[in-house]
Specification:
The complex is a heterodimer of chains A (195) and B (252). With 195 residues, chain A is mainly α. Chain A is 64% helix and 3% strand. In chain A, helix 6 packs antiparallel against helix 7. Chain B has 252 residues and is an alpha/beta fold. Chain B has 8 helices and 10 strands. Chain B has a 6-stranded mixed beta sheet with strand order 6-7-8-3-9-10, with helices on both faces. In chain B, a hairpin with a 6-residue loop joins strand 1 and strand 2. The longest helix of chain B has 16 residues. The radius of gyration of chain B is 18 Å and the shape is globular. The chains are: A mainly alpha (195), B alpha/beta (252).
Chain lengths: 195, 252
């Protein structure tokens, strides 16, 4: 998601100035996505340049409110109507890290899995505690944001469980023990047969 | 390990559940299966501990030992300072009925008894008068949000309602230790969450609880999550900060 569409959605409620937008944005994401005021103004000026919002005359207190334009409304409607593509999301560093751990000598993959699971589990505990603390009806939007993070963390733990189960069956070829010549392989077979 | 009479050992700082270096082996010789190999776990009042781990890691065995339903091959389990291994059968049964509440995946509600009778049963078995047991059972049903349904029979209740009755039965009276093995079983996610909410509330009110689960989302209700693998505790999550710290962003 972009901050752009977040701000457009907020302006659809009515005109607002920068600080109000920042407060409303943080409220609707439960402070999980902090914005600085500079980001808000940069985004507003781009939206204005593209004709999606329009700035109104400054108030006596020196605050300049913004309102959404019809073009902005159309853009917002399109955003709500379009599913978010999975390819828009960043690559999964954890998956790549584990894949590399598996093929890098000297790395104990089980420990990598366990360390990550413990950390993800702790994050999940924190999210759950925040959910438990916000059970008023007006907390619903924020709770749903928390739920999204809960489900993502949960999926990660499940995937780590899956990795661990797969590792039990995984026996990497140990360089020192793999026969490199047919003769060596025969020797080894003889040796094993003698035991 | 089993020295002292234990009964006078309970103080505010004594863990409600103290599992010390327990081993549990099934079978002998080459066929021996080591379900637990030296596990220690202390749970204090106001603390909910979740136990996670793959199938066969020893989770349910640990819970059975904690509840006195099974005995360790070595090591000792203390409930409120009392070593379960030193108790005779009558006394052990009394500790199980009075101090420990169990919630299992299989509800074990008796179909021929109404909800309130199911909840009152452990109290009556323990010698509480019928009237008083019924009153306490109704309180427990109200606590789990079923104040109106006490006279229904299990087959007249939904799965979620039956599980709430099972939880009321685990919480009724003065139980200080609640042991739950996959208590959300086949419940949908909303109902499952309500069950954990109840467990959490009871713990916040001063009980100690152990929750065995393979669902990370459920384990996340705990203050501490421990991981079992092949009968050994392999990890524990770090302690959590306060909600205020989490909201200020220092927690994440």
């Amino acid at each position: 998601m972009s901050i752009r569409h977040g701000l457009l959605a907020l302006l659809e409620r009515g005109q607002m100035y920068g600080y109000q937008l920042r407060a409303a944005f943080e409220e609707s994401t439960g402070s999980t996505w902090p914005l600085n005021i500079g980001q808000v103004y940069t985004t507003l000026s781009r939206l204005e340049r593209d004709g999606l919002v329009r700035s109104l005359p400054e108030s006596e207190a020196g605050q300049r409110p913004y309102e959404i334009t019809d073009t902005g409304r159309a853009d917002l409607a399109l955003w709500f109507a379009t599913p978010i593509s999975r390819t828009d999301r960043p690559r999964d560093e954890l998956a790549i890290k584990l894949a590399l751990a598996l093929t890098t000598p000297g790395v104990d993959v089980r420990t990598v899995v366990q360390t990550q699971r413990s950390a993800t589990m702790r994050a999940l505990q924190e999210l759950t505690r925040l959910k438990y603390a916000s059970d008023r009806p007006e907390d619903l939007p924020w709770r749903l944001v928390l739920d999204a993070m809960v489900f993502q963390a949960e999926a990660e733990v499940r995937w780590l469980d899956h990795c661990e189960a797969s590792l039990v069956r995984f026996r990497p070829a140990r360089p020192g023990r793999v026969p490199t010549t047919p003769a060596e392989a025969v020797d080894r077979t003889d040796e094993e047969a003698r035991r | 390990m089993t020295t002292g009479d234990g009964a006078t050992g309970a103080s505010p700082t004594t863990p409600v559940l103290d599992v010390r270096d327990v081993h549990r082996t099934h079978g002998t010789g080459a066929a021996a299966v080591h379900a637990l190999r030296g596990v220690s776990l202390a749970v204090r009042a106001g603390e909910l501990v979740a136990v996670m781990g793959p199938s066969g890691s020893g989770k349910s065995t640990l819970l059975a030992l904690a509840g006195g339903l099974d005995g360790p091959t070595a090591g000792e389990v203390y409930v409120e300072g009392e070593p379960l291994g030193a108790l005779d059968r009558r006394r052990l049964a009394q500790v199980r009925r009075r101090r420990i509440g169990y919630v299992f995946q299989d509800l074990n509600l008796l179909g021929s008894l109404s909800a309130v009778e199911n909840v009152a049963l452990p109290l009556e078995l323990d010698g509480t008068g019928v009237r008083r047991a019924r009153r306490l059972a109704l309180d427990a049903l109200a606590e789990v949000g079923l104040p109106e349904l006490g006279d229904r029979f299990p087959d007249q209740l939904s799965g979620g309602q039956q599980q709430r009755v099972a939880i009321a039965r685990a919480l009724v009276g003065e139980r200080r230790l609640v042991l739950a093995d996959e208590p959300t079983g086949a419940l949908d996610s909303q109902t499952g969450e309500a069950v954990l909410h109840l467990l959490r509330r009871r713990v916040d009110a001063g009980a100690a609880a152990v929750l065995v689960t393979h669902e990370a989302r459920h384990a996340a209700w705990a203050d501490r999550v421990v991981f079992l693998r092949d009968g050994v505790l392999v990890d524990t999550t770090a302690p959590l900060g306060s909600v205020e710290q989490l909201l200020s962003g220092s927690g994440r």
